[in-house]
Design goal:
Blueprint: H1 2-10, H2 16-25, H3 27-36, H4 41-47, H5 56-65, E1 68-72, H6 80-83, E2 102-106, H7 111-114, H8 129-144, H9 151-156
Antiparallel strand pairs: 1-2
Helix pairs in contact: 1-3, 1-5, 2-3
């Protein structure tokens, strides 16, 4: 799990090159290769900014304290149906069309049970006040329509 936590932060997702490496050698070896820079030039460039930052242990500890977990494709709750949409997409034309390496999940709900009524609002890490406001409004609207379970309650308190 530590290797996947590291790999999920070392490069902006989706990263087909990292996924391919992980697929061929497994997550532990892939993480070691990225750290040692024993990867091809393209993947070295993609991971250059963060390859030395390994805070996976502390990230996973914080996630556990929050009641969360890191969910991977090997886990029974992986929302397989939600990611079948990626099958058959021309990844040459849509290079971002890849499922994530892992999902950082907070809360007790199983992803495979809630994926059908779930929505994601994705934005920048450096959101403006306006962006945060719009995201909150979108989240409130989604929660009001049955997406996200108790999200509306959390937004209002």
């Amino acid at each position: 799990m530590r290797a996947l936590a590291y790999l999920s932060r070392v490069v902006e997702p989706p990263c087909p090159d990292l996924a391919a490496l992980m697929s061929s050698v497994g997550p532990v070896e892939a993480a070691e290769r990225v750290k040692r820079r024993a990867v091809d030039d393209r993947l070295a460039r993609l991971t250059d900014a963060r390859h030395e930052i390994d805070c996976a242990v502390s990230d996973l500890a914080v996630l556990e304290r929050m009641g969360g977990r890191l969910v991977t494709a090997a886990d029974a709750e992986w929302p397989l149906l939600a990611f079948t949409a990626f099958a058959g997409i021309d990844t040459k034309q849509r290079p971002e069309a890849h499922p994530p390496l892992a999902l950082w999940v907070a809360g007790p709900a199983r992803l495979d049970e809630v994926a059908q009524r779930a929505a994601a609002i994705v934005g920048t890490r450096a959101a403006t006040a306006y962006g945060e406001h719009v995201a909150a409004e979108l989240a409130d609207g989604l929660a009001g329509s049955g997406c996200g379970g108790g999200l509306r309650r959390r937004l209002r308190h």
